[in-house]
């Protein structure tokens, strides 16, 4: 029997997208209020790999990532997704934007070995957590680079996204060295 030990803390991230810079700023501010300061923030990337969200969010979507300074317990992933769902609804209720869904917030985390995202959609490769939330290993860090799976969304396989995830992984490793668990 293996020795039981708690997992190491993780770097909490959020993938955010909208066609409205002000909605992205609103989401970032709301999350900082709840989760504390950012450690890293990506540029705003053009989201061109899919038109899945066009009907409810419009076209010309920009996607960015926020990595939060305080490392967290990965067991709270469900709570993070429930919180971001509430924030999406709150943003929508402001009535500032014409779209049915002006802001999308997808939380997850980075470890030294993987990037995990929370979702409400069940698929064969996703693990049910609780309260309607599933977890997906979206990328793995293998042989000094991020690699996807056959289910990995095309945008997560982009070099510019993965360069940001490299920065996140470097930040995480530095924090773990400074504060070993």
Automatic annotation (TrEMBL):
It comes from the Bacteria. InterPro entries: DUF4416 (IPR025529). This is DUF4416 domain-containing protein. It comes from Blastopirellula marina. The lineage of its organism: Bacteria, Pseudomonadati, Planctomycetota, Planctomycetia, Pirellulales.
